[in-house]
Amino acid sequence: MQQSYGRVTDQIIKELVEIVGKSNIVTDRDNMESYSHDESPHAGKHFPEVVVKPEDTISVAKILALASKNKVPVTPRGAGTGLSGGCIPVYGGILLSLERMNRIIEIDRENFTATVEPGVTLSEICSKVEEQGLYYPLYPGEMTATIGGNVATNAGGMNAVKYGVTRHNILGLEAVLPNGEVIKTGGGYVKSSTGYDLTQLIAGSEGTLAVITKIILKLTTKPVKREVLFAPFNSLQDAIDTVPEILRLKMTPTGIEFMERRIIEIVEKYLDREIPYPQYDAFLMIIMDGDSEDEIHEYFVNVEEICKQHGATEALVPGSERAKRRLLDAREKFYHAIKRYAPMELVDVVVPRSKIPGFVRRVKEISAEHGIPIVAYGHAGDGNVHLHPVCDNISKEEFDKRLPLVLGDIYRAGVSFGGAISGEHGIGIDKKPYLAIQIDAPLLAVMKKIKQSFDPDNILNPGKIFDL
Ligand SMILES: Cc1cc2nc3c(=O)[nH]c(=O)nc-3n(C[C@H](O)[C@H](O)[C@H](O)COP(=O)(O)OP(=O)(O)OC[C@H]3O[C@@H](n4cnc5c(N)ncnc54)[C@H](O)[C@@H]3O)c2cc1C
């Protein structure tokens, strides 16, 4: 569909000022810079015509009704930590920042739920919920992200093996449709067979169907203990071959992360700190929650045994909280470290867990075929492999020329192993050219019809996931 949009006129600005107040509107270019990009390495920058910061649902509804009437595109934005260009306003228009909608409305200790606005950060939710003796178990690596962004991208992270991803931890939403109507989906209950499940449809829709204005989160009890086991291997293959066996043990780990020596070296330099076992090529980090130290200890004895059968000669369980925190902290810094190291791209293909070894083997072949190093790490326990093609051996120009071919080959490999091209970061604008590798024409046609039924004028986050 050839798209032409209305511009943000002086009259529209005047009406926006009436809705949110002058101090919650940004129109000068300098102050809009931070709203023109996200953390994606290749998505680039696009400036909106205006940034608007509503503080409640009614204001969001009025802004969308105004935009709809004037056919002005609207791009929702949380904290801008996304990794696929999802919140970049590619058609200009209104950048709808949810940063002021940052209240925790209720923590319900009877029903284990929290009702929150979309602009609350993940870090704040976790700490406020824990103050009430409850637990929100999601642990995507970036705690400054907003919960609205987490829901819109269906964020995953390091605890997904045990607790699932964001969509498994939400019970209901309030959302504003592109025409300004407000809908409520689900509620503070744990099951429902009442009509279509729009909570789950809006989760992961990357702000293309509706603007999320409230979220009912499912909470649980906080595990008594969390421990981490760090095991070194002689090869990435040995490390990854270990994962299915660990998962066959009776207890489910919270997460299993894998990493190559290369990323460890890069993060050591970034943090100016040594990580144990410099002589090894690959590592597993197994995160385990439990009711007691003994329970976790018993589990780790079995895990260590499996690791040793696959070539690990030792394994480390940090003795102090500080040492444990340092290890987890190093893992959280991977993305920032590699971003500082060299120009790079980020891939977050997910494959069935048992297919990780074969997939990573194929990725190494692709790396050799194109002469581009690919650094691998990721959530081994749920099959979500993070790959960074890096530009540290050829010119940037040559890297940019080869990159689309490398990415195409990686995505085709992932899909041929039964996987998907994005496990948690979303399609945004970055992966749009590759969507057809996985999504066939009939399925894409259904997705487009869903988009059109929510947003007939295609004003909400246009240009993301697919073009109409
Ligand atoms: C260092 C680092 C580590 C990361 N680690 C992980 C990880 O382990 N796992 C993981 O899944 N992600 C990870 N991410 C990616 C990122 O944090 C997530 O994608 C996060 O969910 C984005 O939240 P945000 O508030 O920054 O959203 P934004 O980047 O602002 O927006 C993301 C998408 O959500 C939409 N959106 C935002 N708010 C709303 C709303 N209220 N209603 C409708 N749509 C909305 C936007 O339009 C956009 O499409 C990481 C990022 C960084 C920088």
Largest sheet: 6 strands, antiparallel
Radius of gyration: 23 Å
Bound molecules: flavin-adenine dinucleotide
Main sheet: which strands, in order across?
A: 12-14-13-16-17-15
Can you give the mean pLDDT? 95
Strand content: 15-25%
Q: How many helices does DSSP assign? A: 16
Low-confidence stretches are none
* Number of beta-strand segments: 17
Distance between the termini: 5 Å
What share of residues is helical?
Answer: 25-40%
Indicate the structural class.
alpha+beta
Shape: globular
Please provide a brief summary of the model:
Helices cover 36% and strands 18% of the residues. With 468 residues, it is an alpha+beta fold.
Textual characterization of the structure:
The chain is 36% helix and 18% strand. With 468 residues, it is of the alpha+beta class. α13 (356-370) packs antiparallel against α14. The longest helix is centred in the last third of the chain and has 21 residues, at 396-416. The protein starts with 9 loop residues before the first helix and ends in a 14-residue tail after the last helix. Bound molecules: flavin-adenine dinucleotide. The site of flavin-adenine dinucleotide has 37 residues, from β3, α5, β10 and α12.
Task: Write out key terms for the chains shown.
17 strands, binds flavin-adenine dinucleotide, single chain, 468 residues, alpha+beta
